[in-house]
Design goal:
binds zinc ion; Nucleotidyltransferase, domain 5; 10 helices; binds 5'-O-[(R)-(carboxyoxy)(hydroxy)phosphoryl]adenosine; 19% strand; 5-stranded mixed β-sheet; alpha/beta; 356 residues; globular
């Protein structure tokens, strides 16, 4: 049995987990999260300086709690893993230094994990684990991507957002509506009681230079502007803002776009399985619409469990275990952190001569 102690600090959640893999089954021994959301919501978004400080304060307690709650000793673990890219550099550094220090002190291998590979691995913490190849819709605060996953961690990006990520659009529209950060859960709450057909917002397509559109790409900034214009027009007429209806109409069009483009991408590539992960994948309307649309097209759909959609360390541990199970993989202790790194070059994180 391989056991990984994993650390996630790429944004505003400090998290530590202990995850094991035995006979192809993942087991969660501890999953500790300390959210900084309340602190950042005062400022309407994540303040990088505050995030780094809070990670530094939280990690020792989270590691202690993970070990004592699981009953495991640190010497029982096989490896230590930390998120090293992409994210806020200062925040990533705290998790990376903590992970590398633990690995060095206890003479365990260290694995630097790409945050998006972590989100992709979150599906392995669910009951129904799909077999590659399959398509993944990864929708979070920083990314909206369609990624084809094949055996041996082969990831091919087939779709992306050209401006805001889906989660970012939720956060910005929530702000326009006077709702707090993070916007996704707040919009979901009020949208439940709104009329999703009340307002018609644009679906945002990205034009190709030679004509036509990129079929699997997204653009959410025009949608955000359309919501702003609608709010301004209602307010200029001194009418009360129909927050619930705007929220429901916005949530609905985002879900429609994500569902349509994901299904086209799956079918056009001759696949029959779709996986949905990332913070926005926790959205109830999107989950329901995606399930219904996939059922109509006989596509198998796997949704990351709600608790593993938003940032957590269990998914980082699962990604590290998948890497370990495919060979004697480790990162150099000299591997640093990077605000961005293409998934196409993910294997360079395991080279003895690290890329950053
Ligand atoms: O995956 P995540 O925790 O962090 C990133 O890697 O970015 O995603 C956070 C994003 C935020 O933008 C948040 O508003 C959004 O996920 N989110 C949601 C919901 N829960 C979180 N968006 C829509 N509906 C939700 N229920
Ligand atoms: Zn994330």
């Amino acid at each position: 049995m391989a056991i990984v102690l994993s650390v996630e600090t790429s944004c505003d959640e400090s998290a530590v987990a202990l995850v094991s893999l035995e006979h192809g089954e993942f087991h969660l021994h501890a999953n500790e999260i300390s959210s900084q959301v309340e602190e950042h919501s005062k400022w309407g978004g994540v303040v990088p300086e505050i995030a780094s400080r809070r990670h530094l304060e939280a990690l020792p307690f989270l590691i202690d709690r993970a070990l004592s709650n699981s009953g495991l000793e640190i010497d029982q673990i096989t490896a230590v893993a930390s998120t090293v890219t992409p994210g806020l550099t200062g925040s990533l550094l705290i998790g990376s230094i903590t992970g590398r220090t633990l690995a060095s002190l206890h003479q365990k291998p260290f694995l630097g994990i790409h945050h998006l590979e972590g989100h992709l691995a979150s599906i392995y913490l669910s009951e129904e684990v799909p077999k590659p190849p399959y398509m993944v819709l990864l929708v979070s605060g920083g990314h909206s991507e369609l990624i084809k996953v094949e055996e041996n961690q082969k990831f091919t990006r087939l779709g992306r957002s050209h401006d805001d990520a889906a989660g970012e659009a939720f956060d910005k529209v929530a702000r326009l509506l006077g709702l707090s950060y993070p916007g996704g859960p707040e919009i979901q709450k009020v949208a439940e009681f709104g009329d999703a057909r009340k307002f018609s917002f644009p679906k945002g397509r990205v034009s190709k230079p030679g004509g036509g559109f990129y079929p699997y790409d997204f653009s959410f900034s025009g949608l955000k502007t359309a919501v702003l214009r609608k709010i301004q027009s209602i307010e200029s007429q001194n009418q009360a803002l129909p927050i619930k209806d705007i929220a429901a109409s916005f949530e609905n069009v985002v879900a429609e776009v994500l569902v349509e483009r994901s299904l086209n991408c799956v079918l056009d590539h001759g696949l029959n399985s779709l996986v949905m992960v990332g913070g926005v994948a926790a959205n109830r309307r999107l989950r329901a619409m995606m399930k219904k649309a996939c059922a109509a097209k006989s596509i198998n759909i796997s949704l990351a469990p709600m608790e593993f959609c938003t940032d957590n360390a269990a998914m980082i541990g699962a990604a590290a275990l998948l890497r370990l199970s495919s060979g004697n993989v480790k990162s150099s202790l000299e591997l640093g952190v990077s605000a961005r790194w293409p998934m196409a070059e993910i294997n360079s994180l395991y080279k003895s001569n690290p890329p950053f």
